[in-house]
Each structure stands twice: as structure tokens, then as C-alpha cells.
Amino acid sequence: MSSFFCALDRGLNKFYVVCGVIAACFLVLLAVLILLSIFSRWLGIYVPGLNAYSGYAMAASSYFALAYTFREGGHIRVVMLRNAMSGRPRFALEVWCLSIASFFACYMAWFLVRMTWFSYDFEEKSEGADATLLWIPQSLMAFGATVMALTVVHALVKTLVTGTPDLTESAQVE
Asked: Which of 61, 157, 142 is closest to 105 using CA atoms?
């Protein structure tokens, strides 16, 4: 690979780590919101929207973690068949799997971006007491899904260019 593509690969991998850190921050926020909800109920204080914001934090954490988890090999992979193969059949299987995953990841990203745009365009609000504009939490999901699509397409292109499966050290199960 050329130095440009190597630099792009390193930059994207760092970006995926940043998304993983953001996911961890949303996970911490989720825990804080749940504890706040528990203690506020215990003290008899009503804080509107805590349950909704907990859900938004959980969704943001899940979607931001997708790309990082994929790069680290944390998603479920069917490796028994792949490990039983070698050479061109194994490469073809890897390309086929990454192509299918790229299609579905891109479709999911497109759908979530479109849903977010419609929520923004129609000014949809949550039904709870907080009346949050739904495009705000939805945009976090759409961004995370878009990064996941980028990650899978990145893995597909890298596999096609280098001729070997694009797996991190932790994702290589032999």
C-alpha cells in the first residue's frame, strides 16, 4: 500500500478508538443517570426525562461502540468455516462476508440518517415530560451507524487491496 493509504488506515483506526472512548463516556453517563434516577426517587424529587435520557445514552453508547468493536474483533464471527479454509477460497469467503456486511451497514446508516433528517424536518419531539427534539439523540445513532459502515467498507477495501483479510491482532482467531 502507498504511504497515503497507510496514513489513512492509521488515521481511521485512531478515529475508531476515539469513537470507542466516546461510547465509554456515554456508558458512564448512562450509569450516572440511572443512579440519579434512583436517588431522586428515594428522596421524593421528580426529575423529568431521566428515563428517556438514560435510553438516549444507551443508544449512543451502543452505536458509537460498533466501529471500535468491529475493529477489535468483538462482533460475533463465524470463524470455524473460515479457519478450515486457506488460500483463495478463504479470501473469497472473507470478501463475500465483508461485502454483505458493507451492504447492510450502509443501508442501516442510510436509514438512520434519513430517519434523523425526517425528525429534524418535522420537528418531532419525545412524548415524555422533557419534550426533547428527537433528531438530537437520533443524530448520535446515525453518526455511530455511519462510522460502522465506514469501518466495514474500510475493512473490505483494505482486504481487496492487500489481498489478505483485514483483521486486528485481537480479531485473529486461529
From this structure: 142
Query: For residues 145 and 154, is the Cβ–Cβ distance under 8 A?
Result: no
Extract the residue ranges of the chain whose pLDDT is less than 70. 1, 78, 166-174
Predicted TM-score (pTM) of this structure: 0.87
Residue 76 has phi, psi (to 5 degrees) of -65, 125
pLDDT tens per residue, range 67-110:
999 998 887 776 777 778 888 888 998 899 999 999 999 999 99
| Residues 45-67 as b or e (16 or more Cβ within 10 Å = b) | eeeeebebbbebbbbbbbbbbbb
- Using DSSP's 3-state secondary structure scheme, residue 133 falls into strand
Cell 424536518, located at residue: 121
Give residue 78's pLDDT: 66
